[in-house]
Every structure is written in C-alpha cells, then in structure tokens.
C-alpha cells in the first residue's frame, strides 16, 4: 500500500459516494488519531453505518484471504508420470518397441496406465493433509470480534470488517485487522506470528515520528492482523483488511511454501527407502523385476490411514490440525487438564456471599440472567437494603468488563456471574454510573483487577483472597470501617477456606482511595459445575494407564474439592511458588493449585523429562504456552480463546472431555492398523522378490512374467492393502496401556511374523511351480497356476494381517466387521478370475483357464499361511499374551 493517504474511486455501482478512503498502516501510525479518523471518514465513537459498511465492502471486499485454486485433476494425474520408476518403465516400453517386441511394449504400457491410475486414486498425501487437517479446521473456527456500528457494540465475524470500523480488543483475542489504536490500557501484543519476535510488544495510542517508523516492529500504535492480545485492552480503527494488511503480504508468501514432512512421514519414508534398496539389488540381477519395482507407496498408505482417522474424529467433534497427532495419541500416558472450562462447564454462578462484618447470604438461580434471589436468613435482599452486601455487589459490578444482553454473556464467565448477581438485586445499572479513570487489568500472574473511578475518586478491586488482603488495612462493618486486625484476618481466612472446601471459587473484594490502604468488603463463592461425563472419562483413562493431572489457579481447598469430585483421590498435592523450579517431579502428584502459566509450562516440561508423553487440555490464555509445549495440545472449541486454539494440536468442537477418550482410542487403533499394513506389505514383497531370486539363482525359468508381477504389486498396494488402514478400532484397545514412544514399528516380533508368512508363501508357491513344471518347459498353465497361487496367498495373508498386532483370532474379529476389506478381497479375486478366464486379459497376462479342482487345490494350499498365523497367535496367548511394553510410574497413579 502507498505511504500517503489515498482516495480511490469507488466501483461504478456506488452512485451516491464516489470516493473510498484508503490509508496505509505506516501513514496511519504517523498521524494523530483524529486525523486518521478524518482521512477514513469515520466516527470513532459512533462507528460506521450499515450502509457505509456495505459501500466500503463493495470496494475493499471481505476481510479474508483468497485461497488459490487447487491444481486441476488432469495435472495431478500427469504428475504421477514424473516418478523415476515410471519413467524407467516408459523407457522399457520404448526399448521393447525398438526391439519389435510389441507384446511386451503393450503389456508394459498397460502396466504403466494401471499403476499411475491407482496412484492417482490413492491421492497425493500432501493434498489429503491439507484437505483434512487445514480445510476442515476453519469451518469450525469462525473468528468473532467486537465492533462499534451505528453507535452500538456488536459481535460480528472478523471477515465482515471494513476500513474505518471501530474494533474493541481484550485479552486472549486475535487482532482481526490492522488497527490504528486510539485507546490502549496496559496493552501487550504477541507479534511473533508476524515478526518472529517472541517478546510481547507494548502498544500505545501515541503517534509515531516518520523517522522512527520504517519497520513494522517500530509501529507501537498499530495492532497488526493475526497477532494476539496477551494483556490489557484497547480500541482501534481499522486501516487494513485482508490482503491489504501487513499479514496479507506474509500470507501470499506462505501460500508458496510447501509444508515439511512430519516425523512420522519421514520414518515411513526411511522404511520405504530401506525396502527399495533391497529391491534394486535384485533388479540388478533380473530385468523383469523392474516391473515389480513400482512403488508400494508406503508413506501414502500411512497418510491415507491417518487422514481417514482424522475424518472419523471430525464426526466425533474433534478437529486435528496435524495428521501425525492422531497416531501420537497412542503414546499419551499423561493428561494435564486445566480445571475451568475443561473439567468444568465454565458457566459460573454466585451461590454464596460473606460480608466483612460476618453476614452470610445464599444466592439462587443459574445462568446469566436475573432469575433468582439473594437470601439472608430467609429474607430477600434487593437493591441497597443491605449496605454490606450491596457494597460487595457494587465492587463486583464496577470492577468488571463483562456485558449480558438477552441472557448472552459477552466477557469472562466469572465476571458474568457477578453481573448476574447484580441483576438479581436490581443493581446492574451501577456499571453506567461510574466513569473509569484508570484500570489495572487482570492477569494470571497477579490474580487481581482494579479500576479507579470518579465521584469520588476510588479504587474497586477484586481477585484472589491472598492477593487482595495484602492491600487492605481496614474492613467494612455496617457501612463504617474498622482496623484490620490479625484476628479478623484469621476469621476471613477460615471463611475463605470453608468456601473453598465446598468446591467454590472464592473472590475477594475491596475498595478505597489508595491501593495500599484499601477496605476489605467480603467474599463471594462461585460454583463451576463439572461437565457431564467427565468423571467417567477420567476413571476410564486412569484404568487404561493414562495419568490424569488437574492444574488450576484456584486455592488449595477448591482444588481438593474438585479433585475429590473427579475421584483424583491421591493425597499428594503440590503448591508451586512463583520462583520454584520443578525438578524430579513425582508422578504421584495429581493436583496442582495456584498454578500460573509459567508453572503449567514447567509441569509439562518436567513430566516430559521423566518419560511422559503429555497431552495438555485448556481453554484460556493462561493455558496457551503449556499447550504449545505439550506433545499434544488440546483446546476447547466453544470456550477456547484464539490464543489457545492457535497453540493447540487438536480442538474439541463441543468442549467434551470424553472426546479425548475417543481420540486416544483412535490413535491406538491407527497405529495398530499401520503395523498390520506394514506386516502385509513386507511379507508379500519379500515373498515375491525371494521367489524370483531363488528361481534365478537355481537356474529355474522365471515362474512369473512381468505383467503378473505387476498385478501382484498392484494387489500389494491396492484395495486389500488400503483396507487394512480402515480396520475398525478394537473395543479393548483403550484398556491397554500406552505404547512406549521409543518402540519401533518394525519390532522383533513383527519381523518373525513377516519372515514366517513370507516363507510359507515362497514354499507353497515354489511347490506349485515345481509340481506343474514336470516337462521342464514353461507353459501358460504353469505360470497361471503359480500366479494364481501367489495371489490367493496374498488374500489369505491380508486376512491374517488384520489382527496381527492385537493377536485376535480371525473368527473373533468377524469376517464382515471391515466391509471395505471384504469388498477389496472380493474385488481382487474377481479381477484374478477375469485375468485367467477373460480372453483379452489372457493374452495380456499370458494365462489360461483353470479347472474348479485346480482352484480348490490352490485355495486349500494357500490357506496354510492363515492357519500358520493363527497358530502363532494361539502360542502367544498360551505364553501369556503379547509382551507388554515397559510401563512407567504414570500407570500407577
């Protein structure tokens, strides 16, 4: 954008107004606020009218980025021919034509088309990753913002903003557009997503001199689109939207970048490369194996398996931002959960009041409305009928940023509960009776908030009792003040502890003309009810070897009470001091209270240092850092802040903690399916390569021709192999302990199973080949019998591979439990029958028809690989089942 103020002409259909104001963020930062508003033809207090918004949007467009059109399907298909091995086959076809071996040329060409088509249908893994983890994510995360229009504060989608709109910012929100700030109170913004600077930037509303305004990091009065509000609150006028924002330029560069491969994809690529190295050694001995050397696409199958898991989790209301996170859940052995909004509903309701002069009151009603009453000794307290209670309500109402409209809360739930309390007493109008002169916003570190108002100038303060009482030198007693003695402090402490043990969140209130000499007003008890089903989910997790740890900023009494509710009955507790380092953290500790964001991060790091694979759940700004550091960050979709969602790896759309159970179950099932696929892929490939290698070394004629090898290769990579990736999750898998993160996919047990299966396949196929090769001449019948034998072995091997990891017998799983597998096997068998009975395909594959007795003989022989596999499973059970991975202390909690 230009550095100067630009007035561009509106599009032709805007007849009444012909000029649309445009202002760059650089120029806006240099001008005083009133000049910026004048240049943008906007009213800071009244905002834009709806008609003006419509007019400006017609010129500027929506506040969003244009996603480039996806690559056409035909280009994706053509790209499959770029593979070096496909090019090798094309060269082979050309050589065959030059040598006038037209049959071979046609066969190889058909082979290329089949393989390229199969690879195209299987879909490029990067495309799947984008479609499942990225495109699905925004559909559940429509960003909202607060804007002033027609003189009213409205909540609207960020994409609806236009230059000139007035926007309000608060802690935890993402800046929806480039804003020139005209009000900023203790505002600190995290610009790391834009500038790379990890230290939050302090923002003001003061104009910046042009000489110091060259770099965007020096524009302290501009809040840039996409950055995150870490502290404070502010108001600003929109100067840049969509691609006309500073972040828009970054977005254009991001589109051109290709995402790096994940660690899981890299490990699977390495496995594929190791497998290919073995193949190319064989290729050096025999040209016909060049056809067999068509990529099995191991990384593609793994990615497809993960993508299907992500899609299943979307149906369960969980959005995964990164595919490998699904598999990582199978390793999770610790879940650190924030209490508020995660284990509990985060729908706060005041239930109890205690005044500083010893009066108790009960509060009825739930929700953010005026339904309910304040009762003291059975009598209703309304308005200012009780001075001590009304002073607490006044402080809670004035020292508050929440707004309730039409029973809908706009703000923090705790503050909403205080507004609802004022509504029940008819005092909700107190907010408008005072003008704020100064504000000290709440932060997770200080755990208190204060405002200074006029008439007369006085501070209202609310927050944690331990923090508020430090500022107090007196206490309120029936409208007067008395010195705060040690005995009174002990009395207030006992009352606070009593309310905490009842599971209430306790807030203290004070007021006064000086922050260091406040008058203590009393305590309010707020309940945050547990979420439905959380108690059962926690019990299931613990029984499955996953330790559940609760981390909260509440007091010890409240933490213990909530911990007892969820049956986290371990008696060990840890109160973490502000400067205390967590070293050699005991896994037995399950409840952490008075925890700050820095403490949460240290807890996660310490658990990781002692072998924990940590999943951290949360919904607030104070959870974001720990979510980012955890192996698996889980954010709440409805109540979670933008900061929290940005840091998380997975988002629970409906905020249901039970979804984590399904996610862990899915992760374990996906890992098992990957191992089952690897077992099938390797055993079949090793058998095919060994078969031809032995024939070559023993000077036998080739038992399979190039087209037959290709068909076998397609089966190895095709529907039967793919269907192993969608095997339904075993219901018992959640009861098994998490796998060790250091365990390799290729274990000693799996290697034994692979070698046994491949040996059975090789021996059986060689037996058929030797049995048919009696006249020492290769005939179509010989290769057809050998070919069909190997294909049938593949089908039975796939059947036995369905439950290799779980060691479940085939009849226990149910033949039709995986319908895709049934369809894939039936389709492969039908294809094989067409190859040996359909005349045009007989010419291509050089086969001939077999009798029913031949087929029955082959079915009986090839079923031996499944029988041997079942015997191995039975032996494993007799020896005590699968060898369990070493468990750590987390499973003992």
Structure notes:
Belongs to the cation transport ATPase (P-type) (TC 3.A.3) family. Type IIA subfamily. It catalyses: Ca(2+)(in) + ATP + H2O = Ca(2+)(out) + ADP + phosphate + H(+); Mn(2+)(in) + ATP + H2O = Mn(2+)(out) + ADP + phosphate + H(+). GO terms for molecular function: ATP binding; ATP hydrolysis activity; metal ion binding; P-type calcium transporter activity. Its EC number is 7.2.2.10. One of its GO terms (cellular component) is Golgi apparatus. Strand 18 and strand 19 form a beta hairpin. The chain has five domains: 26-63 and 143-256, Calcium-transporting ATPase, cytoplasmic transduction domain A, CATH 2.70.150; 73-135; 318-343 and 530-655, 3-Layer(aba) Sandwich (Rossmann fold), CATH 3.40.50; 369-518, Calcium-transporting ATPase, cytoplasmic domain N (3-Layer(aba) Sandwich), CATH 3.40.1110; 666-730 and 744-879, Calcium-transporting ATPase, transmembrane domain, CATH 1.20.1110. Strands 12, 13, 14, 15, 18, 19, 20, 21, 22, 23 and 24 form an eleven-stranded mixed β-sheet that branches. The protein has an eight-stranded mixed β-sheet with strand order 10-30-29-28-11-25-27-26, sandwiched between helices. Strands 3, 4, 5, 6, 7, 8 and 9 form a seven-stranded antiparallel β-sheet that branches. Residues 1-18, 125-141, 257-263, 278-297, 575-583 and 881-893 have low confidence and may be disordered. The radius of gyration is 34 Å and the shape is elongated. The chain is an alpha+beta fold and 893 residues long. Helix content is 45%, strand content 17%.
